[in-house]
Design goal:
By secondary structure, this protein is an alpha+beta fold. Strands 1-2-3-4-6-5 form a six-stranded mixed sheet, with helices on one face. Helix 1 packs across helix 2.
Length: about 100
Amino acid sequence: MYIGINRDDCPVGLIRYNIESEDATISINIAKEFRALGYGSNLIFIASEKIFKVTGIKKIHAYIKPSNYTSIRAFTNAGFVLESKTEVKQQPAIHLVKQK
């Protein structure tokens, strides 16, 4: 887990990874007061590069609700690309990936 802080040392969000073999699934949560300020894509990018560097992970998966345009944009700005449209727990999801 990584906690993102801003220049004032205030926590703005956290990123978790579920690691299985050479793949990981990412989960992110940005505090409401810090959303839409660019923190999401920066945290995703920095944490993804770090996880690639310190583990044997070769691919990171993100599953996002199709209606969550802000999150989709944050992930694509961090270098993730569309893999497929799928379902997670019987709910539609956009599957994005980033490879090492």
